Amino acid sequence: MIGAIRFDKLDITAKRAEIGYFLHRHYWKQGLATEALENLAFLAFQELGLKDLEIIVHKENRASARVAEKVGFRLIRQFKGSDKYTHKMRDYLKYDLKVGDKSYE
User: Fold this and answer.
1) 39: Cβ contacts below 8 Å, ≥ 6 apart
2) Domain N-acetyltransferase, which positions (predicted)?
3) Within a domain: 105
4) pLDDT tens digits, residue range 28-61?
5) Where residue 57 sits, what CATH number does that domain have?
6) Which one of 3, 19, 33, 81 has the lowest number of neighbouring Cβ atoms within 10 Å?
Protein backbone atom coordinates (compact mmCIF):
# COMPACT_ATOMS: atom_id res chain seq x y z
CA MET A 1 0.00 0.00 0.00
CA ILE A 2 1.40 3.40 -0.94
CA GLY A 3 -1.03 5.43 1.18
CA ALA A 4 -4.65 6.26 1.79
CA ILE A 5 -7.11 9.12 1.58
CA ARG A 6 -10.55 9.08 3.16
CA PHE A 7 -13.35 10.99 4.77
CA ASP A 8 -12.56 10.91 8.49
CA LYS A 9 -15.85 12.54 9.34
CA LEU A 10 -18.68 12.67 6.83
CA ASP A 11 -21.91 14.52 7.62
CA ILE A 12 -24.27 14.24 4.65
CA THR A 13 -26.98 16.27 6.40
CA ALA A 14 -24.65 19.23 7.03
CA LYS A 15 -22.94 18.63 3.65
CA ARG A 16 -19.44 18.64 5.14
CA ALA A 17 -16.55 16.26 5.65
CA GLU A 18 -13.11 16.10 7.19
CA ILE A 19 -10.47 14.48 5.01
CA GLY A 20 -7.46 12.51 6.21
CA TYR A 21 -4.55 11.21 4.14
CA PHE A 22 -1.09 9.70 4.39
CA LEU A 23 1.52 8.51 1.93
CA HIS A 24 4.41 6.08 2.38
CA ARG A 25 7.66 8.05 2.37
CA HIS A 26 8.93 6.17 -0.71
CA TYR A 27 6.22 7.98 -2.73
CA TRP A 28 6.68 11.50 -1.32
CA LYS A 29 7.34 14.44 -3.66
CA GLN A 30 5.70 12.85 -6.70
CA GLY A 31 2.42 14.77 -6.59
CA LEU A 32 0.38 11.69 -5.70
CA ALA A 33 -1.17 13.09 -2.51
CA THR A 34 -2.07 16.35 -4.26
CA GLU A 35 -3.67 14.47 -7.16
CA ALA A 36 -5.63 12.21 -4.81
CA LEU A 37 -6.86 15.17 -2.75
CA GLU A 38 -7.90 17.10 -5.88
CA ASN A 39 -9.91 14.10 -7.06
CA LEU A 40 -11.57 13.48 -3.70
CA ALA A 41 -12.52 17.17 -3.43
CA PHE A 42 -14.01 17.03 -6.93
CA LEU A 43 -16.04 13.94 -6.06
CA ALA A 44 -17.14 15.43 -2.74
CA PHE A 45 -18.49 18.57 -4.39
CA GLN A 46 -19.75 17.20 -7.71
CA GLU A 47 -20.99 13.71 -6.84
CA LEU A 48 -21.83 13.86 -3.11
CA GLY A 49 -23.06 17.47 -3.10
CA LEU A 50 -20.91 18.48 -0.14
CA LYS A 51 -20.36 22.18 0.50
CA ASP A 52 -17.47 22.25 3.00
CA LEU A 53 -14.30 20.17 3.39
CA GLU A 54 -11.80 20.35 6.26
CA ILE A 55 -8.31 19.01 6.82
CA ILE A 56 -6.48 18.99 10.16
CA VAL A 57 -2.70 18.46 10.12
CA HIS A 58 0.02 18.42 12.73
CA LYS A 59 1.68 21.82 12.62
CA GLU A 60 5.15 20.33 12.13
CA ASN A 61 3.97 18.28 9.12
CA ARG A 62 4.70 20.98 6.57
CA ALA A 63 4.43 18.60 3.60
CA SER A 64 0.87 17.60 4.51
CA ALA A 65 -0.10 21.23 4.98
CA ARG A 66 1.43 22.08 1.61
CA VAL A 67 -0.68 19.40 -0.12
CA ALA A 68 -3.83 21.02 1.29
CA GLU A 69 -2.65 24.49 0.23
CA LYS A 70 -1.81 23.37 -3.33
CA VAL A 71 -5.35 22.06 -3.75
CA GLY A 72 -6.82 25.38 -2.58
CA PHE A 73 -7.58 24.73 1.08
CA ARG A 74 -7.17 27.83 3.26
CA LEU A 75 -5.70 27.89 6.75
CA ILE A 76 -8.48 28.97 9.10
CA ARG A 77 -6.98 28.36 12.55
CA GLN A 78 -4.22 26.92 14.67
CA PHE A 79 -5.01 25.11 17.90
CA LYS A 80 -3.69 22.69 20.50
CA GLY A 81 -5.26 19.30 20.96
CA SER A 82 -4.69 15.77 22.15
CA ASP A 83 -3.21 13.39 19.58
CA LYS A 84 -5.70 10.56 19.03
CA TYR A 85 -2.98 7.91 19.18
CA THR A 86 -0.45 9.13 21.77
CA HIS A 87 -2.85 11.37 23.74
CA LYS A 88 -0.07 13.98 24.00
CA MET A 89 -0.84 17.65 23.40
CA ARG A 90 0.19 18.82 19.94
CA ASP A 91 -0.19 21.87 17.73
CA TYR A 92 -2.59 21.53 14.80
CA LEU A 93 -3.54 23.52 11.71
CA LYS A 94 -7.10 23.45 10.38
CA TYR A 95 -7.72 24.01 6.67
CA ASP A 96 -11.04 24.57 4.91
CA LEU A 97 -12.30 24.42 1.33
CA LYS A 98 -15.83 25.43 0.44
CA VAL A 99 -17.69 24.74 -2.77
CA GLY A 100 -17.00 27.67 -5.08
CA ASP A 101 -13.55 28.41 -3.56
CA LYS A 102 -11.96 26.59 -6.49
CA SER A 103 -13.50 25.42 -9.72
CA TYR A 104 -14.07 21.67 -9.74
CA GLU A 105 -16.08 21.49 -12.95
Assistant:
1) none
2) 1-98
3) no
4) 999 999 999 999 999 999 999 999 999 999 999 9
5) 3.40.630.30
6) 81
